[in-house]
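User: My instructor asked us to take a sequence, write out its structure as tokens, and then describe one feature of it. I'm not sure where to start. Here is the sequence I was given:
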Amino acid sequence: LRKLDEDGVTFKSHLDGSKHRLTPERSTEIQHLLDATITM
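Assistant: Let's start with the prediction itself. The structure tokens for your sequence are:
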């Protein structure tokens, strides 16, 4: 379901089987879009 490497994580959705890539930069972008008060 997931694969970790130096650049981030790739995981497969348990809902529809689609693959998703999450990098630190993408994580920060998503948190900004959600208007998070604290981001990590």
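For the description part of your assignment, you could build on this observation: The CA atoms of residues 3 and 15 lie 18 Å apart. Try explaining in your own words what that tells you about the chain.
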